[in-house]
Specification:
The chain is an alpha+beta fold and 326 residues long. It folds into two domains: 218 residues, Jelly Rolls; 100 residues, Homeodomain-like (Arc Repressor Mutant, subunit A), CATH 1.10.10. It contains twelve helices and eleven strands. The strands form two sheets. The chain has a six-stranded antiparallel β-sheet, sandwiched between helices. A hairpin with a 2-residue loop joins strand 7 and strand 8. The longest helix has 23 residues. 33% of the residues are buried. The mean pLDDT is 88.
């Protein structure tokens, strides 16, 4: 993981510096913003490589980027970009279409054709996850993909919402991912993208069965993590949210050598363990932390914690130098 920031650049040079960074990370652009505010420009980007997919989490002040025919002739790496807004809003114009997008929405850019993308000037700071990957990785006819550029895939319903949830979690965890974790996420990230685009194109039949299955599993994992605090999170609820049968849900987890209940319990215990080790949460009782993660019985929580970590929650908390037990 790499981080590039304008923080150490003199204010008057920051926007020019960001123009150079953008060209190296993605493709050459014409960048613009209101001249009177150029000196106050700020931007930061976290860069991770997920196999053939480059993921960049960009935090920036509003500006616009224009991909022109001249710049395309200058450099055309034949890549697509998919953006997922983490916070803020923006607009993309390409191929005669205009897409307005907000938090959680997905949008496809084709860097081989001209486009204009803008972040809203009324948003003081925007955060966007940008996924860059070779065009050849999409298993769709080029003429069909062309119909999808500058089309907003909503992050509020359907497959778009499930894919968005996975990508938003990816953005939230990028600072913490180890090299081994990024390697494991490489295939999943691409599978989620392909499935979301296939759904938008209504061409699910072109997506290999393994890709659909892995993407669905990734979205289910993201859904579970988002809802761990709900004590009523059950296989029935999870299956209904993803429009599959409970039987098929169990089959997906069996293929990963897990049970649904076991995977939920493991995620809840891991969340409790992190919170118990967090000094800022020292004022919270162990039972309060357990309830935050969906455990309704303190006895059951203590038993599960001891079985997983070979010590009670109190013992674990008391051994930490800056966190005190109940």
């Amino acid at each position: 993981m790499d981080v590039v920031s304008t923080a150490d650049v003199s204010p008057g040079d920051r926007f020019a510096f960001w123009r150079e960074v953008s060209a190296k990370l993605w493709v050459p652009y014409d960048l613009a913003r209101e001249r009177q505010s150029e000196a106050g420009f700020e931007a930061r980007v976290v860069i991770c490589e997920f196999g053939p997919v480059q993921a960049t989490l960009m935090t920036t002040r509003p500006h616009s980027v224009r991909r022109t025919p001249r710049l395309i002739r200058q450099a055309d790496p034949e890549v697509f970009k998919v953006s997922c807004m983490v916070s803020g809003s923006g607009m993309l114009t390409q191929d005669g279409r205009r897409a307005e997008f907000g938090t959680g929405d997905l949008v496809l850019y084709d860097t081989s054709r001209p486009y204009l993308a803008e972040l809203r000037p009324d948003d003081s700071t925007s955060r966007m996850l940008l996924l860059r990957f070779p065009r050849a990785l999409l298993p769709f006819p080029p003429q069909e993909v062309r119909e999808l550029s500058a089309v907003c895939i909503t992050g509020t319903s359907g497959i778009g919402a499930l894919s968005s949830r996975f990508l938003l979690q990816l953005a939230d965890q990028m600072d913490e991912l180890t090299p081994a974790e990024t390697a494991r996420l490489a295939t999943l990230t691409l599978d989620v993208l392909i499935t979301a685009l296939a759904d938008a194109l209504d061409t699910q039949k072109l997506v290999p069965e393994d890709t659909r299955r892995q993407a669905l599993t990734a979205r289910i994992h993201a859904f579970i993590r988002d809802n761990l605090a709900d004590p009523d999170l059950t296989p029935n609820v999870i299956a209904a949210a993803h429009h599959i049968s409970v039987r098929y849900l169990h089959k997906l987890f069996q293929q990963e050598e897990h049970t649904v209940a076991g995977w939920i319990r493991e995620q809840r215990l891991a969340g409790c363990r992190r919170d118990l080790a967090e000094p800022r949460l020292a004022p919270y009782t162990i039972n309060a932390i357990a309830r935050r993660w969906g455990f309704t019985s303190s006895a059951h929580f203590s038993q599960a914690f001891r079985a997983r970590y070979r010590q009670s929650p109190t013992e674990f908390r008391n051994q930490l130098p800056t966190v005190h037990g109940d």
